[in-house]
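Quarterly update from the structural biology core.
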Amino acid sequence: MIKKVFPVFLCLCLALCGCSGGEPSSSASGPAKESRVVSLYGSYAEAWLLAGGEDQLVGVTRDAIEDRDLGLSEDVAIVGSVKEPNAEAILALEPTAVILNADISGQVQVKDVLEGAGVACWEFTVDTFEDYDKMMRQFTQWTNREDLYKKNVEDVAKQIEEAKITAALSSTIPDVLLMRAFSTGIKAKTDDELAGAVLKDLNAHNIADDHPSMLEDLSLEEIIKADPDFIFVTTMGDEGKALEYLDSLIEKNPAWQDLTAVKEGRYIVLPKDLFHYKPNNRWGESYEYLGNILYPSLFESERQRREAAASSAADAS
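Predicted structure, tokenized:
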């Protein structure tokens, strides 16, 4: 059971380390072993653990518990939600550093209070594997666990590169539509989000790039006219309600059933753990997941080749 910390009266003149704004620089010395770190974003908390910082993590937001099973100690406190972190609960833990998401307004707002109390704020924006790489390079330098950088970044990068090379062997470029569904609407997405960036790296052509109006006002009529080979859906918030809303729109337009992607079983809801939450050390799985859908024959052949090579190596040893 994770311990909850309730608001208390605090003196803001805590004897903590100096504050820092924006992403930490590579010259920053980072935390000492006795440092106390709070993460205001579940995926960043996971990244900190992957960097070997479990003994220093003293607080997380609720999503780290509800959305990710990180196996945290009961001594790790909940300090509010991603959108509404509780400054008093954070400061009650006497942290030396807080990891936050620069894209979330509630976290940017609480940053002023934390910096006023002398707490170092490490801001990150992670939308691509390259962003994750930069964050983990910083984290593993601070935890003195460069071995974990190799395991959780360099090895993953090799997996991603292999997926890109395999996709590049295709003689055709698939047309795709990426949609984000939530309980009150749907929007087309391009490479400004995780799944879109992966699709681009795998040489898929997103039809929203040709129809910018889709990004603001997605109509089924535009989709029907473009008739993409694949339709991918990510969800935000309550997945059940988001898909219910999407289904209600589809039911109002029977022509949807005539789309090539729908008729041939290529209308796919992507798993949240790989395409909504930041996949961290599973980023390579995200690439392979979409690669297997876009280019099944190529990726199956590559899988068989690797298995054969591994078997030969085992026999040789």
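The chain has a mean pLDDT of 86.
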